[in-house]
Specification:
There is one protein chain. The protein has a single domain, classed as Glutaredoxin (3-Layer(aba) Sandwich). Helix 1 crosses helix 4. The chain is an alpha+beta fold and 160 residues long. The chain contains six helices and six strands. The radius of gyration is 16 Å and the shape is globular. Strand 1, helix 4 and strand 2 form a beta-alpha-beta unit. The termini are far apart. The relative contact order is 0.18. 43% of the residues lie in helices and 16% in strands. It has a four-stranded mixed β-sheet, sandwiched between helices.
Amino acid sequence: MSPINRRHFSLGLAASAAATGAWARDSALPVPASLQVAGRDAAQKGEPLVLLVSLPGCPYCELVRRSYLLPMRAEGLHAWQINVTDHLQPVRDFAGVPSSGAALARQWQATFTPTVLFFDARGNEIAKRLVGVAVPDFYGAYLDAELATARGKLTPRRGT
């Protein structure tokens, strides 16, 4: 996509998000109360834990949520989100220690939004993180590739 087309795409996406104030609220992924529990639940299904590091009002975060992660979550993907500016909503980390979205984003050095992270049940990153949306036309392919990488690094379940 040329720089001019990318700029038009960005402006159009931002304008549509601004015109529909409820858009971001309606499409938010849930925030996990405990990454330890969410990671364990994902592992029991043989899936990675996928976390979107998001920022309220970010049109690219909304694109990733609405176009990719929400539909995949409806199909069984263990996808959640944390907000880089949220210091209030408690989230227990992979060790069970109380934290917040803002603190976790800093800990993971994931302060650019959107960032999609792929974890195993122990909190190890098991695929290349997706930072930003450089080429929206190919984002789905990048996401699919990293999901395949993450799934390939998970410990096989017993009896399978």
